[in-house]
Task: structure prediction
Amino acid sequence: MWEIVKNIFSPTQYMPHGHCYLWQTPLVWLHVTGDFLIAMAYYSIPAMLIYFIFKRHDIPFLGIFGLFGAFIILCGTGHLLDIWTLWHSAYWLSGIEKGITALVSCYTAGSMVTLLPQFLSLKSPQELEEINIKLQREIAVRENAELALRCAYEDLELKVQERTAQLTETNTSLETEACERQQAELKLRSVTERLQYLLATTPAVIFSCKLGGDYDVTFVSENIFSMMGYEARQFVDGSLDWHSLVHPEDREIIDTSFAQILEKELISYEYRELHKDGSYRWIHDEVKLVKDAAGIPVECVGYGVDITDRKQAEAALLQQLKRERLVNSIQERIRSSLNLEEVLTMAVEEVRQFLSTDRTVIYRFNRDWSGFIAVESVVAGVMPIKGTDINDPCFRESYISVYQQGRVRAVDDIYTAGISECHINLLAQFEIKANLVVPILQGENLWGLLIAHHCRSQKQWNSSEIESLKQISVQLAIAIQQCTLFEQAKTEIADRKLAEAALQKAVRVADAANVAKSEFLSSMSHELRTPLNAILGFSQVMVRDSSLNNEHQQHLGIINRAGEHLLSLINDILEMSKIEAGRIQLNESSFNLIRLLETLEEMFRLKAKSKRLQLNFEIAQNAPYFVNGDEGKLRQILINLVGNAIKFTETGSVTLRMKNKVEENLATENVELKSTQIKTADRGYEKSAPAMFDCANANSIRPVSLHLQFEIQDTGPGIAAEEMNKLFIPFEQTKAGYKSEQGSGLGLPISRKFVQMMGGDIVVSSTPDFGSTFSFDIQLGLADATEVQMLKPHKKVIGLAPDQPEYRILVVDDRADNCLVIDRLLSPLGFLVREAKNGQEAINVWEDWQPHLIWMDMQMPVMNGYEATRQIKSHPLGKETVIVALTASAFEEERKTILAAGCDDFMRKPFEAKILFAIIEKYLELRYIYDESVDKNLEDESELSGVSSNESVGLQLAQMPSEWLDNIHDAAHECYDDKILRLIEAMPVEFVASAKVLTDLARDFLFDDIIELAKSAIKACDS
Result:
């Protein structure tokens, strides 16, 4: 690149121009100075021309000035190149520059030729002078005019100021008006835009039309395009006639409606209109007549809505309604009639009318897959085919398997459906052009076909019709099954009536036997328990005689135990008899479950200890104290199972476990009710403070039911597998049972029945030589502590407390020995006792003597206890007399009958003296004198040794209600010993040892110790 530039500006192939001057310095410098000055002059001229043009844009011929400037610059550049060529032979560059100068000078000369006429037309100086003089004259005139105008202007200025003030005021009002108008325009624009948006987006098409004539459209909203596919302008400019789009059948509806618009002023109608895609759309129009201020009708405005979807939904709904009516009609006929032919005939008639077909039939198969038309419904003019036998091999081979799978065949045109030629021939015999076939299945068996024939033309079957026939075929299958079963039932009923007659005869015989058995049981209960009442009653009377020596006391104990054992056997036999007679039932009440278990432990402890067995009672921590259920039956179950375990176990242990499985989880804040108890025959109880009166009152949150699981495990000989089936058979015993020569074989059967009545069952698992486990679940309700009657500790009654009235007791019994037992028990205590042998005598004695309490036997001659009780209680004074029933019946359920007769309470014979005394105390509210030595003996017994220190007393007191603790604390502060003793009487029997400690403290006036015990109990309760 550099070489190219060098060759242009300083080539070496030529001789520099300076050689022509022989490099004479004066001559060279003369040419250099002259060329340089000429160049500077040439450059200054165009600079001044450019400045002149820049300043005077109004001068004409500016272009020629530019050309002169370019020409002069090129001439100056040529002189500079002449200086350059003195030393450098750049003749080509000098020649190019001269060529450009020649072109510019020629172009300038040419331009001068074209501009020369214009130059010649310029004014001469004389002409310009004349023009100047004229201008000066005009200026003088103008100055005079300006002076006059200035004067006029000053006058006008005053007027303008006045007018300006007026205009300012007017302008202010106009500005206000313009502002208001601008706001109105903004609102109008907003409303217009909103209206345009609504018109464009609303599904309704807004339109207006002329009044009269063809009601030509004058306006229609743009969303007509989305509804009908046409542009709005097509309707407005008349290029599209909206009348031509209306369905021919609906045009009369529109004409009729518009004919009434002047009268009604508001019309609406529905019609079909042709869409641009060729389909018809259902449209709903509502049109209103518009009037001017004078009340003259001007035009019509309205809106149109596409209701095609609604119409289609209505059509589908109508079709569905028809289908449901058809199915319901068939169902109703099926329910009301068991005549199969009648049901099928009605079905085909209904189906034909529903489908609007020419013929509807039911085809029934024979066993060899031939068949016949069982029923049909056919329109007039179509060939009937009822009763026709059809045995076509083509049909059997091609379609039987299809219909067995439950598949439906719908043929719109038999000739284009692609079916076999032989089948087309079969259908053509019956003039069939289209058919719909639905199988009638009974389970997996193909019974027949429900077929719709169209004979006069082809027919397109829609899905709704196919679905309808499928539903009807299901109903027909049900009807066929019902009718078949009805026919079978008629045969079975005839046989059953004969069997029922024989069964009724057997029932009458069984009822008579049950009545006889019940009467026998009642009589046996009375006859067996009555003599035992005398035996056990007089043994209790004799035990109370302090004059008897120890040997006689021992003999009486033997008599008592033998009588109790005999009573237990009698009770077992009677219970088993009641179970077999179906007379057993639950007698539920609220009771203390833990106290029941403690009593059972004490009952078996000595027996276990005598056999050197370890007796364990393990009770779960969440076991409830107070429950609702049949306490007697639960006690008998546990006595039987634990007693058997101890009886058959020679070494090792017997363990009773109880777990609580509650259906509903108790609240998380429930306090743990019971810690695990492990008791042995060698060391008695070891128990942590039971929460019998928990301060949190955990029993107040009751689940629906309570599931308790009991398990009795022993280390006895076990039970062989072949003997398991004998366990629950009455009077059956295992080998171990026979060896023991004890028991009647009734304990386990009775226990199992009781468990089943309480919602569970007994499960046995045993390993020979290792022991057995009996477990069962029962359902109990959860009870409040207030529902449980707290029994006072048993003390020997030796008399009536002083300062009490004489209490009159009447004993009514036809057996003198029974009366004598009660007399011997009560008379020594200070009661006045009389006797009566039957109900009539009892009424007479009651009228004369007015006893406070009557012991009434219920089974007596002359008049029984039921009638005597009713007569006494019907008298106003008799309501104040307490009547307690005495019965030798072993049936607990008779309690309800006895109480319903008017008795206040119930006591079964043989009875215990303590129960007799407790009932009298309860109803007469009297006070006894007790033998204090009995209290001393009780204090020494193991079952009352649960507390041996103030700490143990405090733990038991913590289980009492908080209100009770506050009361005894306040009474001790007041040194009120009588109030303390009354509060101690309210303590439960389990706390008798603690009650004895508090009683001793109160009688010794050690109130500070009582306060400390109460404080510790309250603190333990709060924690």
